[in-house]
């Protein structure tokens, strides 16, 4: 009993310390997630990462961009995997009738701007019509220019077995190649327009043979455009690289759309496979009209809210330096 009484003060002290420690632990609550907190930046997407997405059957999201603002928009979502500087910029940005009018200089110019605004997405650029058709050496030189000057991480080429040698050489020198089979917009004249490819047996077999040959040549991925959904699925199952569909059904490894189609700013033809995810054209046009209207009726800019002011004494001195008489607002002269 004496021993217990002897140790009672120490026990009390120990219990007090434990209670204080427990209170401290209880006060440390897990942080509440703020819905306005920006998402954690995503690591840079690599070719290896794309193959991992394919293996896990996680759909790959690719979107086109043509300038710094659209590149920022593509990078704003951590779910965007690939940003493509598409030759469709010929029509949606430059007003050309077709992609065949786009020059390599123009592509380099726009790709530079996109590169400056791209963060995590893998950056790919289309090689314009004529930049890889004359010879393998010309194709390599032009692709090198896109990588070195524009800062892209790979190039996309439209075509089938006829461009196998180009794909092989580009791969050998270390330039990643994304192939493009099915509908080839750069050859719309030869194809009698923008028509679905592979609807008949021979056409379908041709697209499949092209896809297999380009994979064998070293392409790390391929776009499959405007083919029946069954064929898009079959090609995806036959090849061992990611397939990115555009009008090729829901069973490819991923999807790509043109930025202006997604945002609803393109007023031209709307393909069957396009879904508009925003209606920015109406917002844009309304904004332009409201601005012009405010200028016309004199409500913009506001003298107080949207204008700068000068210190009154400094303004008086300025007027005097200009030899002008300083007039008081109440009608009297300022000293």
TrEMBL record:
Function: Catalyzes the reversible reaction in which hydroxymethyl group from 5,10-methylenetetrahydrofolate is transferred onto alpha-ketoisovalerate to form ketopantoate.
Highest rank taxon of the organism: Eukaryota
CDD domains: KPHMT-like
Keyword set, alphabetical order: Pantothenate biosynthesis, Transferase
Organism this protein belongs to: Laccaria amethystina LaAM-08-1
Pathway: Cofactor biosynthesis; (R)-pantothenate biosynthesis; (R)-pantoate from 3-methyl-2-oxobutanoate: step 1/2
GO function term, MF aspect, one: 3-methyl-2-oxobutanoate hydroxymethyltransferase activity
Reaction(s) this enzyme catalyzes, per UniProt: (6R)-5,10-methylene-5,6,7,8-tetrahydrofolate + 3-methyl-2-oxobutanoate + H2O = 2-dehydropantoate + (6S)-5,6,7,8-tetrahydrofolate
SUPFAM superfamilies membership: Phosphoenolpyruvate/pyruvate domain
Protein name, entry field: 3-methyl-2-oxobutanoate hydroxymethyltransferase
Listed GO biological process terms: pantothenate biosynthetic process
Coiled coil spans: none
A GO cellular component entry from the record: mitochondrion
Family annotation (InterPro entries): Pantoate_hydroxy_MeTrfase, Pyrv/PenolPyrv_kinase-like_dom, Pyrv_kinase-like_dom_sf
Broadest EC class assigned to this enzyme: transferase
Family per record: Belongs to the PanB family.
Documented EC number(s): 2.1.2.11
Transmembrane segments: none
Pfam families reported in the protein's UniProt record: Pantoate_transf
